[in-house]
Amino acid sequence: MLMGNGRMGAYEMKLGKGCCHGTFGELVQGRMGDHYFLITLPIPSLRSEANFIPEPAVSGLRVTDCKLKAKRAGEWLLQLFGVNGGGDLEIHSNIPVGKGLASSSADIIAAIRAIADGYSLPISNELISMIAAKVEPTDGVMYDEIVAYDYIHGQLIESLGTLPPFIIVGIDLGGTVNTIEFNKAQKAYSRHDLKQFLKAYDCVKKGFKEKSLAYICQAATMSARINQKILPKPIFHLLENLAQLYQGGIVVAHSGTVAGILLDRKIPNRLEVVSHLSREMLLFSKGLNTNLFLYDSEERILV
């Protein structure tokens, strides 16, 4: 048993495990009033997994240098609960870094969960949010379902549910984006943009209420179009044409390098459509260092 500083009582120690999913950008990201918000697009096949070996005699956490954000979050957790010990933290992830897929948020949350599991600390998604937001703007991926989330302050706005069956055909356009630096910059949203964000939010809520992906696709495209002024995607006009052709929506990483088409999984000739979209995206990006992204929500296939 581990004794804390006397304030928290005793906790059982064990090998701790934690995990967290990534995202494909965001369905919507913008501002409502004075608050920045996003609506998540969780991808369970993108995952960060953490293992933690608690060591009460050690001060602080030992972790590889590339996972320093997760280390900071873990140390905040231990400090919050008055735990004097530390331990060894190991994180494995299949989420590419700097692309807008929530790689660092997933690492942070997986680490918090693993450390809490190792020291038997009682945590909630609200507590995880608070800690994660101390490290950097966070993506709301501590929630399995789709949520509207204040990513600056780490606060849940509301839970929306799960999407109807869908497919994403996307592409990574290359390069990386530093999320912390990106979020320091003021976003030059116009009054029209702010009205569009409210409209997009309402469209998403209507889509969930009516179980209609069409409304959600409409909202995602509105948000992606506004984001062209902030972090333009050179493939946007092609995506716009393809989305109209197949009644889909444009989804982008608003602070990353990926973009794609969100489609209803029930679309006729699904495999042919996916093949056509993939060919068009690859033709556009010929000569660039790009990667395709294919996801099927029913089969949980990630390529």
From TrEMBL:
Any one Gene Ontology molecular-function term assigned to this protein's record: ATP binding
A Pfam family it matches: GHMP_kinases_N
Q: Where is the GHMP kinase N-terminal domain?
A: 72-137
Q: InterPro entries, alphabetically?
A: GHMP_kinase_N_dom (IPR006204), PduX (IPR012363), Ribosomal_Su5_D2-typ_SF (IPR020568), Ribsml_uS5_D2-typ_fold_subgr (IPR014721)
Going by the UniProt record, its keywords in alphabetical order are: ATP-binding, Kinase, Nucleotide-binding, Transferase
Transferase as a keyword of this entry, yes or no, is yes
Give yes or no: UniProt keyword Transferase: yes
Task: Tell me the protein's name.
Answer: L-threonine kinase
Organism equals: Neobacillus massiliamazoniensis
Top-level taxonomy: Bacteria, Bacillati, Bacillota, Bacilli, Bacillales
